[in-house]
User: What shape does this take?
Amino acid sequence: MPVMNMVQALNLALREEMERDDRVVVLGEDVGRRGGVFLVTEGLIDLFGEERVIDTPLTELGIVGFSIGLALYGLRPVAEIQFIDFVYEAFDQIYSNMARIRFRSGGMYTVPMVLRSPCCGGIKGGMHHSQSPESFFIHSTGLYVMMPSGPYDAKGMLKTAIRLDDPVIFLEPKSIYRVIKEEVPEEDYTIDLGKGKVVREGGDVTVVTWGAMVHLANQAADFIKEKLGVELEIIDLRTLYPYDKDLIIESLEKTGRLIIVHEAPKILGLGAEISAYIAEEHVDLLYGPIIRVTGYDTPFPLAHEKLYMPNVARIYNAVKRSLEF
Amino acid sequence: MRSIDRKSLEKALETYRVLDEDGNLVGEEPSISDSTLVKMFEYMVRARVLDEWLLKLQRLGKVAIHAPNKGQEAIVGAVMPLRPEDWVFPSYRDLGVYLVRGMSEEEILDRALYNEDDPLKGSDFAIYGNRKYNMVPTPVPVGNQIPHAVGVAYAMKYRGEDLVTMVMFGDGATSRGDFHAGLNFAGVYRVPVIFVCENNGWAISVPFERQTRSPSIAFRGLAYGVDSIRVDGNDVLAMYTVAKQAIERARKDKEPYLIEMLTYRLGSHTTADDPSRYRSEEEVREMMRYEPLKRFKRYLVDKGLITESEADELYRRYSSYVEEAAKKALNKSPLPRDIFFYNVYSTLPWNLKMQLEEFREAIKTIEEFGLEVD
Assistant: This one.
């Protein structure tokens, strides 16, 4: 089985889906000749031509609005937003249309499109190449939201996203585009929407996270095991909406302690929703407070980004606080 | 409603020039003082030298990212006729603009390295600006600043001041809603704003002809009732002449103007880009013939305002000047570690105060265990 990074796995997913289904088209800024700025669409234009791999003018509003039209007429567009930080021009199209057409039409029309985009920090990208806006999309109601943490999942999840009849926001943590390598099957497989995964078993504290933070949590778990003799159980949500509540509950039945780690700011981040849900429905499972380790409630900075983002020290402090309660 | 006459259509479709690529006069010679001409050349040389140094510092891993400027230095001609009190909204590929507005090489390097003296306090990369020079830092999503400039121009008119606003953006930005909204407002309200579209032929990998089917950007300006002209943007004399007229008219008659600066991006989009994937080296070599410094130097030499060796000396002088400035900037301390908590709001709301406490605890843990972060 070939070993791939996430960029190669995503590229393979797109290639296989385009071969399988001629309704699948790819579009966005620089996705054609340039192969995308991160090369996720590299080579597709040579295989499928410029009518199916479309270099667009520079407008996110145009890309999303146009994709909605393609999808309404039965195509399966996979639109790339070059950096998710540039998506805001398209927000009216996303919020008022991509997420609303099924509802507005009483279920007569659907928008089976995928909007994929590099997201998140850790590459010294500054304010507008580092943000984690998953909450905006979840809060929009009408969109599925996914974020893989490695090449194997990335391929299976993107295929699922393309085949779903509802619109999907597919966020790709760019800091791990090339650093994580895994065996990726060259045959067809999918990963179900709404299914998380326990990536590390442990009995003391549950850590719910996603994207690049899965790897940080793992690193923190090693450190915490060494310093405190405590075992973390790490859940990679993979699908951020609808998230795998059962997997969290199952883990909490064992640990009774919950820490949520995400890069997005704390206020109204997905961690806030998960905390509220557990507090409302499963407070009996908890031995102590739910603790969130997140980006601070400031714009993502260029200076000292690793101090702004969750880091091993912050997870260590959170685990200590959780255990001391 | 404004009608469009044949003359304005011609201005929007043809390319206004003063010098050809060899520095020969092909248009009417503007009357510009000798000292201004020499100053103009100096700004262009300084922009070229600084661009080379920022590229070098990026390759050394000191600067996060840089958007190469080479080939677009004639933008200095557009800014020089402004007054210091006028406002400028530059784009992110505008070293010449920053220099003309009064930023020093030192300040630009402090910014690029986001050290303790960074005036923008480590907020974002590859952007410049400073209230001191009435120059607002560029938003990275391209073209966002276009309607801002129109608003500022409206406010200037509203206050009865004889000031103008100038805004720079690229050809790619003209596909975004910000451009269309900005141009439309400027046309409807008739405000003293000068739009400078630096059409350098490429929006990363997308060539101009795939960006729009309009014959020119100036043509699109006309559609909004904004007088517009296409200019050879590698001809600094043409840029200066056109901008001076536009600025004077905006000041006096409160009329907007669009200048399409037809130029060429000789370098990559940014240091993270690889143009060999989408354009040929032959094209770039061919376009080198048209670059703005060479032809302007020829003009100045022919006019007896500078000699070849003086021009070389100028380049050398600024190179060693920037080298020294870079050494100094590299030796400065980083910004304080908690810098990003400030300047979000005028004061810290309670949640940020709590988070600042958590941040300090994290720093203690980092120090206690000697953890590597940052």
Remarks:
- Chain B touches chain A through 51 residues (CB under 8 Å).
- The two ends of chain B are 57 Å apart (CA to CA).
